[in-house]
Design brief:
By secondary structure, the protein is mainly α. 64% of the residues lie in helices and 8% in strands. Helix 2 runs parallel beside helix 4 and helix 3 runs antiparallel to helix 4. 15% of the residues are buried.
């Protein structure tokens, strides 16, 4: 059993949003002039979402391995439900950055269940195999 890794960006968000009054996710932390002559500004929210996507990739790899228990899926679902409640009920969570974290958590939950279902079907014989075996 493992704790959902997406709790890390949630904890960082909560620390910054609640313990640092005046923190703004849209503040630019770096600015780049691209080879194409375009301008790109990197914000704290961008960094948070990018890091969360990388953590989601790790979570998907963890979900793909055999031996993941239903408890792992339940913990991910509880994390998503808690994040949904924060988003709907807490003013500091009403931001695009938090919404994207919520969406990433949703992908984690649905992807984990889909992989679990697929893994369960791998070992089950299909209808064609049953017919050939005379079953």
């Amino acid at each position: 059993m493992g704790v959902p890794l997406l709790i890390i960006p949630l904890a960082i968000y909560i620390i910054l949003a609640f313990l640092m009054p005046g923190f703004v996710w849209t503040d630019e932390i770096a600015h780049f002039r691209m080879k194409s002559e375009g301008e790109w500004g990197l914000t704290w929210g961008d960094v948070m979402v990018a890091g969360s996507i990388l953590i989601l990739a790790v979570e998907m790899m963890r979900a793909g391995r055999a031996g993941r228990s239903i408890v792992d899926h339940i913990l991910s679902t509880l994390l998503f439900a808690g994040m949904m409640a924060l988003f709907l009920l807490v003013r500091e969570a009403a931001s695009t950055t938090f919404f994207l974290l919520l969406l990433i958590s949703f992908v984690d939950v649905t992807g984990g269940f889909a992989m679990g279902i697929r893994r369960g079907h791998r070992g089950a014989p299909s209808g064609a195999e049953n017919a050939e075996a005379g079953g």
